């Protein structure tokens, strides 16, 4: 595994692979247990990803040099114009 | 050329009056054309609206448009300058029923009157409607709506970008829905105007900007482009080609969400997924978190079940295997192998002792022979004898040569008297050949002798005890007297002995005499 954190989708994909390996009995018991532990770590990671309870909202701004920057966005309700 | 108010009487009057120019003579073409022009332009109102069908439509490279308007009876030539043509929303085509607005003027060079069209509108359908249909047809021909270009939406996005008005109801709807369903999400808003001039460019720019900065922003899984409902004019930006192309070119999967259910825009047709409303777009974009969590629990228990059943299966197999004979008397094969090892080691021991004994016997036999031969002394004597012989031979030869030379000198002197120049050269020649032959024979003998000496030396080395030493044997001598130790009886405790091995000698002290009995049968009983 690299340093980059797995995305939810990647973690889920690995989980699927692990479950398949164990169920098909293609790996030994010892390896199965190792894979099971890895699978449970993945489940935990997925739960952590899902545990964030609030949207993180950012507003994109373009700098003078053309690069972009995301700044925190304040949701001010009641500013609707088109609808 | 100020226009006069329309007055039918003036036309009537003119046609009966003779022309102003020229007396009663013929008129020039230019004069006639000028008269026609004056008549038309003074008679017709400056702006007319003409209904007809377009034919012979041509767009010149200069940007001016040339076409003919016709109905079932007549045709009218039309020109539309580039400045007016640029404002057209739709593309004029042959057969299209239109209303052209402009003024009739005479094109004097061709002697033709034309409608200088300033505005062109489709009849029957609205301009925007027509433009929409035309763009749809064009992009569809190019394949921009093809199903094969549609990218699948990510099942579990972690970062979504929104291209919409930062103050619109659409944004509020989308954010509220996302938060309700899947709050573990990052949202980036790229604020744009969604109506009015320049809105289409802003929307297209935003789509391109997000696609270009995808990685810099940490990876965008999904794009939602849209706005709330409005009139066709309000939604128009999403019907512009520039927006359609930006959506089509982007690599990030895109959901379009423009207006209400009934509104379909070009952006909707190009997008990977069309949502009927902004709220629907958010629902399509993300799963419901509680469902995902439930799914995760199912997966975790499936994993546990898989491991458990695997372990149970192995346990069953283990029990079955333990019933088998090999496990009831597990040490049998081990014992069999141990027996084999014992047998082999006994054989090894015996054969080793035999080898040592026979080597020892041979050594004992050879040793006296070596002593007797004393090859060094023998060889040295031979070499000295050889050198002696060589010296004597050389001496005898030189003496003989000198004598012969002297004899010849004498003969030569005598012969000089008898037969000068006849016999002498022949004899000299013979003498020289004899001398050369003698020398060759001598060298031959010498090399034979040295070969003999070399082979004796080799034999000596082969038989010498040193070569035995190099095979790992050693000779131990008492330190005083340097007598070879052959028996324990020659030794006593703490006595110093010198042991010679292949490449040198070392001294040691005798301890524990009995330990020298390394093998079953001591050395002493062998010799």
Topology:
The complex is a heterodimer of chains A (83) and B (527).
Chain A: H1 8-24, H2 29-50, E1 56-62, E2 68-72
Antiparallel strand pairs in A: 1-2
Helix pairs in contact in A: 1-2
Chain B: H1 8-16, H2 29-43, E1 48-59, E2 65-70, E3 75-80, H3 82-85, E4 97-107, E5 112-122, H4 127-142, E6 159-164, H5 169-181, E7 186-191, H6 199-212, E8 222-227, H7 241-249, E9 254-258, H8 266-270, E10 273-275, H9 278-285, H10 289-322, H11 325-328, H12 332-373, H13 375-418, H14 424-463, H15 465-469, E11 475-478, E12 496-501, E13 504-509
Parallel strand pairs in B: 3-5, 6-7, 6-8, 8-9, 9-10
Antiparallel strand pairs in B: 1-2, 1-4, 2-3, 4-5, 11-12, 12-13
Helix pairs in contact in B: 5-9, 6-7, 13-14
Order of helices and strands of chain B: HHEEEHEEHEHEHEHEHEHHHHHHHEEE
Find the count of extended strands of chain B (DSSP E, 2+ residues).
13
Number of structurally distinct domains of chain B: 4
Count of helical stretches of chain B: 15
Output the CATH homologous superfamily of the largest domain in chain B.
Answer: Succinyl-CoA synthetase domains
- In helices, the fraction of residues of chain B equals 40-55%
Helix content of chain A: 40-55%
User: Nearest-angstrom radius of gyration of chain B?
Assistant: 64 Å
Taking pLDDT < 50 over at least 5 consecutive residues as the criterion, the unreliable ranges of chain B are 11-18, 521-527
Give me the Rg of chain A, rounded.
21 Å
Determine the oligomeric state from the structure. heterodimer
Tell me, briefly, the overall form of chain A.
elongated
Number of helices of chain A: 2
Strand content of chain A: 5-15%
